């Protein structure tokens, strides 16, 4: 029991800090408002590291993947399946949340004015007009696109590219350590910021969290049963469905207990072998899917955006819908292996959509409560994704291996 709780220790500490901050804000609003600078300092520290984090982690990952050019067909399948298995739950939860508004008319009152009108400039969202523009947290999408292109170039640059890739790996290790250090301050920083945010809010706001979490858990249960069955059928027909449901329990329980896709990888590989999947394909696919196939993460990211737009009284337009799906897919890819990555995802949402900083603790609460359910989706669908990838590439890969 204690070992299980240890896996959630950081999330529990963060949730307790946010709850205490919220209570402090309701009970002593005048004092709580004075705590806002403490939270602002913490957020600014994270803002200063997010640009190098995104640039280095994306370039490093892409550069290493292009070393496997001989397995291009499998890699293309992994990417395509991962994108689709992130888009489908993201679209589904958005439509569900729009039909059943978890905010139910409750509005978040902020001193900062929120822009609700006007159309989005996708050119500015996806590109910057000079290099300096890439160094701003407001241009994260543009930075991701350029980092992907740079990673491909590094991977195709032979010996010089391998030297750069090794340097990026070392730099990525250092950045991860910086983030790990900063995350020790998260309970204090976010607790103070949430206290200041709640100081001017109505107690009804807390009820919206329960409705949002309930909506997510219902959607997760439906997607886990129906979605997994459809994916397994696509990968192996009726027999594929039977094999999946016979061997998915061990990875699902491990994911629930550890709240970590990476920690569940050995169990997933063992289950894939028991399912009779091609061993070589599984050993290539599953380690990559751990960081790329994040349907659960995409799902909660999409719900967070719909939820916060409703709380702020902002119109959820078709442009916002498309951007929500894009952010959900990209954030799942970028933050997958980052310590405290889910929290950095909130910054990604806020900076890309230009939302007030006060909403960050609210998004963190949703992410922390739903983390275990999201991880279960991520993990079990690594198995169904491998089934689909084997069906696409199995015969050709076996022929190439024999040859």
From TrEMBL:
Compartmental location: Cell membrane
Superkingdom in the source lineage: Bacteria
Keywords of this entry: Cell membrane, Membrane, Transmembrane, Transmembrane helix, Transport
Keyword Isomerase carried by entry: no
Predominant location: membrane
Residue ranges that the Swiss-Prot or TrEMBL entry lists as coiled coil: none
Topological category with respect to the lipid bilayer: Multi-pass membrane protein
Membrane-spanning ranges: 12-29, 41-62, 74-100, 131-154, 174-195, 215-236, 295-313, 320-341, 347-369
PANTHER family, A to Z: PROTON/GLUTAMATE-ASPARTATE SYMPORTER, PROTON_GLUTAMATE-ASPARTATE SYMPORTER
Protein name as catalogued: Sodium:dicarboxylate symporter
Source organism (scientific name): Shewanella japonica
């Amino acid at each position: 029991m204690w070992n299980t709780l240890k896996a959630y220790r950081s999330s529990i500490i963060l949730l307790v800090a946010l709850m205490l901050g919220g209570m402090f804000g309701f009970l002593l609003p005048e004092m709580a408002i004075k705590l806002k600078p403490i939270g602002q300092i913490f957020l600014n520290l994270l803002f200063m590291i997010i640009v190098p984090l995104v640039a280095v982690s994306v370039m490093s990952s892409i550069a290493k993947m292009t070393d496997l050019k001989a397995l291009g067909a499998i890699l293309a399948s992994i990417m395509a399946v991962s994108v689709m298995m992130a888009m489908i739950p993201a679209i589904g939860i958005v439509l569900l949340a729009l039909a059943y508004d978890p905010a139910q008319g409750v509005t978040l009152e902020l001193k900062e004015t929120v822009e609700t009108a006007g159309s989005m400039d996708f050119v500015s969202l996806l590109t910057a007009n000079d290099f300096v523009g890439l160094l701003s947290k407001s241009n994260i999408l543009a930075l991701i696109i350029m980092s992907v292109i740079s990673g491909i170039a590094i991977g195709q640059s032979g010996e010089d590219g391998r030297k750069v890739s090794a340097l990026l790996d070392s730099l990525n290790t250092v950045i991860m350590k910086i983030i790990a250090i900063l995350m020790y301050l998260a309970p204090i920083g976010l607790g103070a910021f949430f206290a200041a945010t709640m100081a001017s809010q109505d107690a009804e706001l807390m009820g919206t969290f329960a409705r949002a979490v309930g909506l997510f858990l219902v959607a997760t249960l439906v997607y886990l049963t129906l979605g997994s069955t459809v994916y397994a059928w696509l990968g192996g027909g009726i027999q594929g469905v039977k094999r999946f449901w016979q061997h998915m329990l061990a990875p699902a329980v491990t994911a629930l207990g550890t709240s970590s896709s990476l920690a569940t990888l050995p169990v997933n590989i063992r289950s894939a072998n028991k399912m009779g999947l091609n061993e070589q394909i599984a050993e290539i696919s599953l380690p990559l899917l751990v960081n790329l196939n994040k349907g659960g993460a995409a799902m909660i990211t999409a719900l967070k955006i719909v939820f916060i737009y409703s709380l702020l009284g902002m119109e959820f337009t078709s442009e916002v819908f498309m951007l929500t799906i894009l952010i959900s897919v990209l954030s799942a890819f970028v933050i997958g292996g980052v310590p405290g990555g889910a929290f950095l995802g909130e910054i990604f949402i806020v900076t890309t959509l230009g939302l007030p900083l006060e909403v960050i603790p609210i998004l963190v609460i949703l992410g922390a409560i739903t983390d275990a359910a999201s991880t279960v989706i991520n993990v079990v669908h690594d198995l169904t994704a491998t089934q689909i990838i084997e069906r696409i590439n199995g015969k050709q890969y076996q022929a190439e291996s024999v040859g």
